[in-house]
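[job 4471] stage=fold_predict status=RUNNING
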Amino acid sequence: MSQISFARLLSIVMLTLAVRLASASTITYEVGTCKAHIPTYKSISAALAATPAPNVVQVCPGTYNEQVEITQPVTLEGLSAANSDQVIIAVPGTGLAENVPNGEVQLWVNNVVGAVTITGITVDAAGNEVTNGTRVIGIYYQNSSGTVNRVTTRNQRGGSVPTGWGIFVEGGTSNPSVTVENSSVRNADIAIVTGTDSSSSELTAIIKGNDVQPLNDDNTYGIYIEQGATTTVAGNFVSGAGAGIVTLEGSAGSVSGNTLIGNGIGVSSEGDRVPITSNKILNSTTRGLDIDSVAAIHSNIITNSPIGIEFDCIANGNVHANVINDAATALSRVPLGVTTTNSYFNVGAVRTTGGC
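[job 4471] inference complete, writing structure tokens
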């Protein structure tokens, strides 16, 4: 081989290697000026829209009055600097604009092919101008996969209850998978919602280890599982809701190992394919568990509730091994012929039929 041919071959090899290395590298942009030697932008939206598209957008502490839309895979992460670790996405000065049908989303992950990770971000809707019943949503994953970890959403209120949602995870044709974990979701009409309009599951969601405190109102919900989703709800703390956890008909998954304190209803079970197991349900103001399904209901501890488990005349024979302490009625409106074995302490009436 001649020296010229060898030189050409070597240059082609080096060029190919350089292209591969460039394509495999991580492109990181900064919002703000708390780190050196990284391209900087004034807003989160500007960094996301930059060319080439970033793999990582790091956001300096501060308040960013904008509505953010994510359309490509990315990690959006808050930074710690200058004695602060608080990155807030807040309402623009002109108020929230409707950017989805009948909705105003603050942080929208819009049909992304690939994973989107959001961490260390606060989404705050305080001061929103919505008065017409339009839904306000803090974080919205629409037909997109990814992880929400150590975020805070707060003050998502609409013009009427319950039109403000803290986090909404919606599936779709790509059958996405989303995890919401270790986060604080508070002061919303509904804190966390999962589901689709499909009769079959088009979403896999994991909701775990979150502190969920919606508005203290009878018409509010902590974690709300709609149809078309397979949702695992585990290890969450839910307090102050009209209903702490709700599983609707057509939903699938499990509700296990959660702590629910001071809700109107601890858990409302309407999904036949969602077992309710090993939860601690304390100080419910009306009833610990409300059954409108034949799902397995077992190994739950229900303490200090007027009614431990409300059967509502549903013939659910899968209720067993629950512990009910300090209730006026342990089991209410149980159909005749339904056998259930639980442990009872300090209850006024173990079982009533209520005309069933």
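[job 4471] summary: Confidence is low (pLDDT under 50) at residues 1-24.
[job 4471] exit 0
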